[in-house]
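User: I'll paste a sequence; please echo it back and then give the predicted structure.

Assistant: Echoing your sequence first, then the prediction.
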Amino acid sequence: MPSPFLEIIELDDGRIALRRSDDDAEPLVVIEFSHEAQDFLQGQHVEVAKVMISSGMQMVGQIMDGEQSVPEGRVLH
């Protein structure tokens, strides 16, 4: 059974990933910032990625609890 514990890591190529803490398989989520975005964020892109992942996890919890619906289609505005 997969571990219920997740960790946020920085991959060797600089991308930020969410993965199971006991698994070396492909990450569950990967966030990649362009060099321009990293410069704009003044090196704080890891902190921004953590907030993005945290917000996504909260949304997943709301969806699982039936508090939030999943929109139809692929428009992501």
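Strands lie at 6-10, 16-20, 29-31. The first strand starts at residue 6 and ends at 10.
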